[in-house]
Design goal:
Strand order of the largest sheet: 2-1-3-4-5
Shape: flat
Number of helices: 8
Largest sheet: 5 strands, parallel
Number of strands: 8
Distance between the termini: 62 Å
Radius of gyration: 23 Å
Oligomer: single chain
Helix content: 25-40%
């Protein structure tokens, strides 16, 4: 018999399929309602998967699952989980840092490029046939610019690496200076913006 797993949030189909291969899933977004689902599995469920940070997992929530041993937060953060209460009651809280760093950094760079190069507007100009009436105006380049990053954590460093490949000078602001990075540090966000 597969162990029970309460799922808070909406997993992607391939994730749900993999979880379902190992666990008996009890999705809180089910038709019977969250409290009914929790009551039905309270006497045997030891694990909770929180996907997308959907709702607080506070003491009141965890008390509805007295056998709970582990909460797995699918994402970098777990601030939606009362980790102090969980720890005091022997419940392990996990998260998945580092899994999406590259994807988030790629998206960030894509958004920067779309903003400067106006790709969306240029495509609409093209598809509307406006290119026959005249070219789309020249756009700005990313090359030789300076970018300020707020919070040079794992994702910030991935963004910086991508920006450097475009010839962008990188500076950063954060809680404290990091001695192992080549970028200029600004203790004041306002000074960095200037």
């Amino acid at each position: 018999m597969k162990p029970d797993l309460v799922v808070s949030g909406n997993p992607m189909p391939h994730v749900a399929e993999q979880l379902d291969a190992v666990f008996t899933l009890h999705r809180l977004d089910g038709a019977e309602g969250r409290d009914a689902i929790l009551a039905r599995v309270a006497d045997r469920c030891k694990a909770l998967a929180s996907i997308g940070g959907h709702g607080a997992i506070d003491a009141a929530f965890m008390q509805k699952l007295p056998k709970l041993e582990i909460i797995s937060s699918f994402g970098v953060g777990y601030d939606h989980v009362d980790a102090a209460w969980a720890g005091a009651h022997g419940i392990t809280v996990t998260n998945t840092p580092g899994v999406l760093n590259a994807e988030v950094a790629d998206t960030c760079l894509g958004l920067i490029l779309c903003t400067l190069r106006q790709f969306n507007q240029a495509e609409r100009h093209l598809r509307a046939g406006n290119w026959l009436k005249g070219p789309y105006p020249l756009t700005r380049t990313l090359q030789d610019r300076k970018a300020g990053i707020v919070g040079l954590g794992r994702i910030g460093k991935e963004v910086a690496k991508r920006l450097e490949a475009f010839g962008v000078s990188v500076v950063y602001h954060g809680r404290s200076e990091q001695k192992d990075v080549p970028y200029k540090y600004y203790p004041s966000l306002v000074d960095m913006a200037r």
